[in-house]
Amino acid sequence: MKLGIAGGEKSTAELREYAATSFLGHGVNKESLDIAIRRYDPDVIVAQGTSTDPGPYFLGSGKLVMAREVLKRDLALIIKASKEKKIPFIVSAGGAGADIHLNEVIKIVDEISREENIKLKIAVISGEINKRWLISKILSGFKAERIVDHPRLSKYLTIDDVNRSVRIVAQMGPEPIIKALEEEIDGVITGRALDVALFTALPLKKGFDKALSFHMAKILECGGLACEPGSGIDGIFGILRKDHFEVFCPNPKRRATKRSIIAHTLYERPNPFIEEYPGGVLDISNALYEEVDNKVIVSGAKWIPAKYTIKLEGVEFVGYRSICIAGVRDPYLIKSIDYVISEISREVNEYFSYLSNKFFKYIFRVYGKNAILGNREYEKSEPHEICILIDVVAETQELADSIASFISSALSHTHYPGRKSTAGNIAYPFSPGRYISVGEVYRFNIWHKLELDDPLEPFKIRVIEFPQRAIIP
Q1: What mean pLDDT is reported for the chain?
Q2: Is the pLDDT at 10 greater than 70, yes or no?
């Protein structure tokens, strides 16, 4: 078996994956991609592009998480590289991963195929969950238990939860992608997907060890972030073999180290040694890491079979947001800020009491004074300047704007001990400064895991040829 990472004939007992970026649409390093293709001969190019990290807004609003132009650039680079190399690409794309996002990605791919004069045949897999299907599951006795113990989440998913949701997606496992790879295609684009599923699909299809496949995927999923110095727009390369895998960075400006790879292996998990995935648990408690010539060789992971479950994510509409940002450097106001906020809160509650039948809420976040840790703040020194973020959510945008405007005005004029002026003690960095209309607000109301008998059941696969035929109105 060939152990080198460059040159010569590839061993049939290895699989080479290039993770092009930490997040599709946030940047792909073209130079690193070119080096990976030219020198290291990958079998597949992979990139994750869906996440809940940006919050519930994008799933509710249907907007892309990333700038469309950057997403188009990233996709074009990956598509052209895979086409040139005659290897498949596998990506999730669009951010929140619903069909509305996936359809926009399809439009972008169509534009790329026309502009670059490239013919493509791509398997597209929906990550959105049909509400009627999910309700039928609940009615037939399937129980989806909440993943985190939070009062906003039902212990077990209810029909009301489903009906209140604007959209519901699920993190698909590798099985739908494996199924798609059975087609004669140039690549796979999915909606919401488990990040590691993108990287494990081809190895599992080829019969590689499941534990090693998932462990390598865990390291590759965020691209160059697993290297030193870390980078969200750079890539990382993995070579999977029978009893180990190795990872390295094609970009000579970065290197995979034992420290960086172990650190990323522990990334985003409550337990440093095990992580639950659809159909099993990855146990890395006995994993071994060896650093050799700017690469890290990893072995020793174990796979423990378990029930097959997928994570459901759904959001409900809450209202509309308006904010105000204010800077303060007056030492007397800083010293009295808790008093001032309590006085303003009293005035707001009294003034808007006539709207008792309307929904609204507001909160003050005082940055520089316990805004992040709150009562758990351990640093007790007095700040010399603070930033006050006034956050208002109400059932209409007009009401949210009105309350934010009232609060910001009160903040400029409320009396406090030591005050020497009637106004001018607040610095507003923007115009409009009294309030900024932010728009719709959503929150997660579904964060549950659903057991499946068939991992393919809720996910629709279709093969699309590009450029698409013109649609006749």
Answers
A1: 94
A2: no
Q: 371: burial class by Cβ within 10 Å (0-12, 13-18, 19+)?
A: middle
Question: How far is Cα 283 from Cα 242, in angstroms, rounded to an integer?
Answer: 18
Q: Taking a C-beta distance cutoff of 8 angstroms, is the pair 329, 385 a contact?
A: yes
Q: Determine how many CB atoms are found less than 10 A away from the CB of residue 374.
A: 8
How does pLDDT run across 15-43, given as a tens digit for each residue?
A: 999 999 999 999 999 999 999 999 999 99
As a whole number of angstroms, the distance between CA 63 and CA 67 comes to: 10
Structure letter (DSSP) for residue 170: E
For residues 303, 305, 310, 311, the Cα torsion angle rounded to the nearest 10 degrees is -60
How many CB atoms lie under 10 A from the CB of residue 376?
7
Strand partners, 325: 389
Q: How far, in Å, CA of 170 to CA of 418, rounded?
A: 56
Backbone φ and ψ of 169, nearest 5°: -125, 170
Tens-place pLDDT, residues 275-299? 999 999 999 999 999 999 999 999 9
Tell me the one-letter amino acid at 333: L
* Location of structure tokens 């995927």: 217
pTM: 0.93
Q: Are 407 and 344 in contact (CB under 8 A)?
A: yes
The DSSP bridge pattern shows strands 89-92 and 44-47 to be parallel
Q: What is the pLDDT of residue 470?
A: 60
